[in-house]
Amino acid sequence: MIIDRDTQMPIPYTNIGIKNKFIGTVSDHQGYFSIELSESTNSDTIEISRIGYEKIKAPIAAFGFSDSEPIIISIKQNMIDLNEFTVNEDYIEGQKSFGILPLKSRFAFAFNPMKSDARANLGRELGIEIDPDGKEMRVNEVSFAIQSNQIGHITYRVNIYKEDAILKDKPGEKVSEKIYEVTEKGNGVHSVSLKSENIILSEKSWVTIEFVDFHGENVRGIVTLPVKFPLGKYLSRESSLGEWNSVMGRPSIKVDVEIMDFR
């Protein structure tokens, strides 16, 4: 169970991953998680990450995982020092959209591959790049399409990452996130408003959709997002906190922004 070190309250939707092993998961809405490990992984590094908290990296053996006794892992809130800034009245120069939003395609990204337990796929994620190109942009809305949902009630997380300082063209620090519930089976377009967060981007960033939870007893069934192939490219990772991979195609993700003109 993942808890806040100060409040002792559970922390939902925390990412847990084994570095370079394609093994990972996400804690549920009550902070609980389970992960299947073998003795050969004891010397590997486990990483625990949640926006607003200090990241933990340590050998798996240091946590004392067992088959019978649950453990509690406490993580500390991360105090962020902000750079000096000036408040100006802002004006909207125009609006712009990044990405596309087809509802169906012959190709798709599977959040929960066929014949696989949904728990084994928590943390699967894909996203598109958005480049302000020297402008400042406010993110208004992120929309994505579900082509097939055979599970039913699913929880997604919309994430925004800034570019990694070392690995260019890859997501780095997460700067924003928002939880979104898909409650019905079938297909459809879903829109997540971010206006109230007032997210201003001035550098290359990535907007991603992450599979973080499911509800009910139906642990099997395919859940997909359509991808137009072969034009374009996107980034994806197969497990929580796993490595990012560049993939051909244009996923059904659209980001609506306002171009700001600060005077």
Write the layout of secondary structure elements.
Layout: E1 2-4, E2 15-18, E3 23-26, E4 45-49, E5 56-59, E6 73-75, E7 90-99, E8 107-112, E9 125-130, E10 136-146, E11 148-149, E12 154-163, E13 171-182, E14 188-193, E15 200-201, E16 205-214, E17 223-237, E18 245-251, E19 253-262
Parallel strand pairs: 1-6
Antiparallel strand pairs: 2-3, 2-4, 4-5, 7-19, 8-17, 9-16, 9-17, 10-14, 10-15, 10-19, 11-17, 12-13, 12-16, 17-18
Q: Low-confidence runs (pLDDT<50, min 5 residues)? A: none
> What is the gyration radius calculated from CA atoms?
19 Å
Strand content: over 45%
Helical/strand content category? mainly beta
Mean of residue pLDDT values: 90
Number of helices: 0
Largest sheet: 8 strands, antiparallel
Write down the oligomeric state.
single chain
Order of helices and strands: EEEEEEEEEEEEEEEEEEE
* Residues in helix, %: under 10%
Give the termini separation.
Answer: 48 Å
Topology, number of strands: 19
Per the principal axes of the C-alpha atoms, what is the gross shape?
globular
